[in-house]
C-alpha cells in the first residue's frame, strides 16, 4: 500500500506561480515513476509531467517551458513548479505513483493516486 499526500494548490491570477508537492508513504515499496495529471470539468485526465526513478523527465506540450518537475528521492516526494500560469491550466491536479509493493513474499506493481488538489487560474 502506498499513500500520496498532496499540497500546494490554490487560486492565482494569470501569470502567477504555484508549487505542488506530493509525498509518498507506505510500509514496503519502491517507486518506478511519479508524476502529475490534471482533469478539468468535462475533459479526460491528462498527463502534465512525470519523472522516473533515475530522474528522467517528460512533459505535456502544454507544460513545456512553464512547468518543472523535480524529486527528492530520499523523501519519496515529487514537486511541480508551475510558472506563467494560464486560465486553461485550471483543473484538479492529481499525483500519481507507479511503485513495486511488497506484500508477504510477493511483489506487486501498481499505480496509486492522490486525492487531488484544485488549481484555479483567473484571467
Which spans have pLDDT < 50 for at least 5 consecutive residues?
Answer: none
Terminal residue distance: 40 Å
Shape: elongated
SSE-based structural type: mainly beta
User: What's the helical proportion of residues?
Assistant: under 10%
| Secondary-structure element series | EEEEEEEEEEE
The biggest sheet, with number of strands, parallel, antiparallel or mixed sense and barrel status, is:
7 strands, mixed
Radius of gyration: 15 Å
Mean pLDDT, all residues: 96
Descriptive overview:
The strands form two sheets. Strands 2, 4, 5, 6, 9, 10 and 11 form a seven-stranded mixed beta sheet that branches. A four-stranded antiparallel beta sheet has the order 1-3-8-7, with no helix packed on it. It is mostly beta strands and 123 residues long. The chain has strands at 2-7, 10-13, 18-26, 29-39, 46-52, 57-59, 67-72, 77-82, 91-103, 106-113, 117-122. It contains no helices and eleven strands. The relative contact order is 0.32. The mean pLDDT is 96.
Tell me briefly what this model is:
This protein is 0% helix and 64% strand. The protein has 123 residues and is mainly beta.
Helix/strand layout:
Elements: E1 2-7, E2 10-13, E3 18-26, E4 29-39, E5 46-52, E6 57-59, E7 67-72, E8 77-82, E9 91-103, E10 106-113, E11 117-122
Parallel strand pairs: 2-11
Antiparallel strand pairs: 1-3, 3-8, 4-5, 4-9, 5-6, 7-8, 9-10, 9-11
